[in-house]
Amino acid sequence: MKVAKYLWIAGAMLMSQTALKAQLAQIPYETRGSHLIVKVQTNNSDSLSFIFDSGATNISIDSLTAERAGISKENRETVAVGGSGGTQNYKMALHQNLKLGNLEIKDVNMVLINFASLSKAIGVKLDGIIGYEVLSKYVTKLDFERKKISFYDQIKSVDTTGYTVIPFEFNKNILIPRFPIAITLANGETFTGRVMFDTGNVFTLIVSTPFSKYHNFDSKLGETSVQMGRGLNAITQDQLATINSMSFNGFNFGKMGIRLTINDQAEPKEGYLGILGMEVIRRFDVILDYMQKKIYLKPNKAYHDAFPAEPKKAGIYKESEDFLAKNKTRPGVKVTPSGLQYKIIKQGNGEKPTMEDRVSLNFTATLVNGKKVWSTYDEKKPWVHRLDKALDGLGEAVLMMPEGSKWMLYIPAKLAFGDTGTEEVPPGAVLIYEVELLKVARS
């Protein structure tokens, strides 16, 4: 009996040691909004704050952080990176090494991006974003109740009891998991399409314009509103709506607010529905197995939480109306037929741009109370785009400005973010721009 007992103890110890070996690392994370913030090290840097994002197919690092971390300027190349406002060129640091807890991620490339605006939006100094380079190498478990991320060598090392297995696919070299879901709109019609599983999307669901156009969602959504925001490269627009339900793989959710991208140039297309986000994902314990192309989901305590409603349309603030009424009487302030107010600080001698030209602008944008919203000076990089990527009021003004000019602009909400606002701009708010037209590049 004693021999059997000792054999049992030895076996248990061996199993325990095997399990510990199979779990390669476990790290805590913090949350900012719905973003998962993990600590990463590169070279001899202190701990850096990275968003852990299953929708990130490249590692990116803040350009200033890269300088402070001693990442060499020599081993770099220029790459094109797509964003919600189009594609821009960025520098990529090649053959870098990172540490995530005690995991070493070797010989990876990192795109250098200025994250000042995103840092401001989420309320924490953001140093980078990491996702696929880790997920492709390790089975990854997200525990939203304990706020921990665990990494394993293989799926056999993980207890999957009680989980539902969802096979997924990568599509057209976009290395983000996709699987089908069904949604029922306000008019009772149900539609099925593939969604990307994206822990970097803080919303419930973002529906793609091609899918919504193909199925004529505009006539089926019921009451909607529009909200503007700032993408990586330009101003973006989302349509806000409420759906009756969402379901996938035996999981069913009731009414929830969703977002639909607005892109007038997009062609109608079936198949790809959109992006599933954290307001749904956080309701599960999640295991991601990229090697076997499977997601494991098990409802957690948040599964039955009510979904937040998308913001409704709000009225124009009286503060904004009063400001514009008083401001237009000040010396030097002129008013256009659209309601845009401007004052010339310096008049340049160059040519005026057209809508087809690319312009380089430096600007600082504030609210009427003086709160700074954005500044290209803070980001140490001018805004370079065609004017169809700008706010209506900004675009109207710059079309009147000769190259080399500096103007003050007082942009009514109807020419800015309307009566829905953004995270940084309240509904109905006037925006004040000090803007300088640096260069006009003819198309």
Automatic annotation (TrEMBL):
CDD domains, per database record: retropepsin_like_bacteria (cd05483)
Signal sequence annotation: 1-21
Molecular function GO labels: peptidyl-prolyl cis-trans isomerase activity
Sequence ranges assigned to domain PPIase FKBP-type in this UniProt record: 356-441
Keywords: Isomerase, Rotamase, Signal
Catalytic activity: [protein]-peptidylproline (omega=180) = [protein]-peptidylproline (omega=0)
Pfam families hit by this protein: Asp_protease_2 (PF13650), FKBP_C (PF00254), FKBP_N (PF01346)
Transmembrane segments: none
SUPFAM superfamilies per the UniProt record, alphabetical: Acid proteases, FKBP-like
BP-aspect Gene Ontology terms: protein folding
Coiled coil: none
E.C. no: 5.2.1.8
Entry-linked PROSITE patterns: FKBP_PPIASE (PS50059)
Matching InterPro entries: Peptidase_aspartic_dom_sf, PPIase_dom_sf, PPIase_FKBP_dom, PPIase_FKBP_N, Retropepsin-like_bacterial
Entry similarity comment: Belongs to the FKBP-type PPIase family.
Protein name as annotated: peptidylprolyl isomerase
Organism: Pedobacter cryoconitis
